[in-house]
Amino acid sequence: MQQSDLGRYSIGIGDRFGREASAxxxxxxxxxxxxxxxxxxxxxxxxxxxxxxxKPADTRRAVDAxxxxxxxxxxxxxxxxxxxxxxxDLFVPYADFFTIDVADYIGGKAEAADEQAFFAxxxxxxxxxSVPGLRAPIEVTDATLGEIARKYxxxxxxxxxxxxxxxxxKGGSLFVTEISMDEALAPQTPAELLFILFAIAQERxxxxxxxxxxxxxxxxxxxxxxxxxxxxxxxxxxxxxIAHTVKEFxxxxxxxxxxxxxxxxxxxxxxxxxxxxxHNAGLHLKTAGTTWLxxxxxLALSGAEGLxxxxxxYKQAFExxxxxxxxxxxxxxxDRKHLPLPQTVNGWTxxxxxxxxxxxxxxxxxxxxxxxxxxIAFRVAAxxxxxxxxxxxxxxTVVSGAVTENLWKRHIKPLFMS
Length: 418
Prior knowledge:
Strand order of the largest sheet: 1-2-3-4-7-8-9-10
CATH architecture of the largest domain: Alpha-Beta Barrel
Distance between the termini: 36 Å
CATH topology of the largest domain: TIM Barrel
Number of strands: 10
Helix content: 40-55%
Radius of gyration: 22 Å
Strand content: 5-15%
Low-confidence stretches: none
C-alpha cells in the first residue's frame, strides 16, 4: 500500500488539552517563511487520552479547526501514538499516522515457521554486507541471524499484524506507519537495525519512519542525559543503515529516522541537524509534552488568576508525586530534595515561576526537578476541568505566545535551521 508523504522533515507536536494547534502552526509558518517546510503531526497516546478524559475524535476536531482558522494548506497528520492491537481501533477513524509500538515484544519467541521463513530469506543475502559509511561489513551468519530472530522477529511480526489490521480498517485511505522500538532496554546495533528493516521489508510494511533506541537517557521535559558523542555515532550509523536498506531491500524511499523519546533534546539538536544535512536525510522529531508545560508557563505570566492556577497545579503535584510518578518511573529523575515547597512557590511572582519552569540552563533559577514534576502533572489540570480551560481561553495571547516561541526558538530553529 502506498503511504502518505510526510515530506523530508516532520515534527510530532503534543497538545494535551486541544487548545494550542493554532499556536503550533504559527511556529511552522515561521519555518516555512524561512525556507524550511516542516509537516506537523499531532500526537496523543491512549494513556494521555485516558488520563485527560478525551478521545481521538476530540483531537481531530481541534486540529482540523486550527488548520481551517490558520488557512494551513500544506499536509498535516494526526498520530495514534504508541498504539497496539488493543488500543488501535479507537484511533482508526480519525488518525492518518500510526506509531506502532512493539518494544514490549522484544525478546519474545516468534513462531517456528516465521523463524524458518526469516532464515530462508536472509540466507539469500551476501555473506558480508558492506554499508557505505560503516567501518566494517555486517556479517551474515547463522549465529547473527539467530540472535536477531530471538530478539526482534516477534516485534516485527506483531508490527505486521497491526499494520494489516489498520490497512483493512482504513480501506483505501492513505496513512503513515511508524515502527517504534525506542523503549527497548538497549540500543540496536547497526546489524540489528539492518536486519530489523530487512524483516520489515519481508513483512511488506511500507514503513514511513523508524524509531530506534539510542544510548543515554531521554527523560520527560528535560534535556538528554548522556554522552553526546556516543549518540552522534549511533545516530549517524542508523542514517547510513536506513539509506542502505532503502536501496537494497525495497523499503519506501521516503523512510526516515524518528527521534522520539523525551521532550527536550536541546543538546542533541546541533548534532542531529548537522548529520541530517550531511547525509541529506529526513527526520521525524517528537516534542511530546512541551506544549503543556508552555501552557502552565504562560498562565503563570498572564496575571493573578493564571499564576494561582499554576501554583495550584504545582501544589497538588507536589502532594501527589508518588501517584503521578508511577506511570513514568523509567523516564523521570526527580530529586525531591530540590523541589521547592508549595508555600514557597505560592509566594513567587509569575516571572519567578516561569524562570523555574522554563528550560533555560543559563538561568540560575531553572529547576529541572520542578519541570519534570509539572510535566507529569497534566492529570491535575484535567481534574480542574473548565477552570483550567477557561483560564487558557481568557489568557490566550500570553499562553499561545509562549507555545509558539518555545516550538520556534527552542526546537525548530536550532535543529532544522542552524
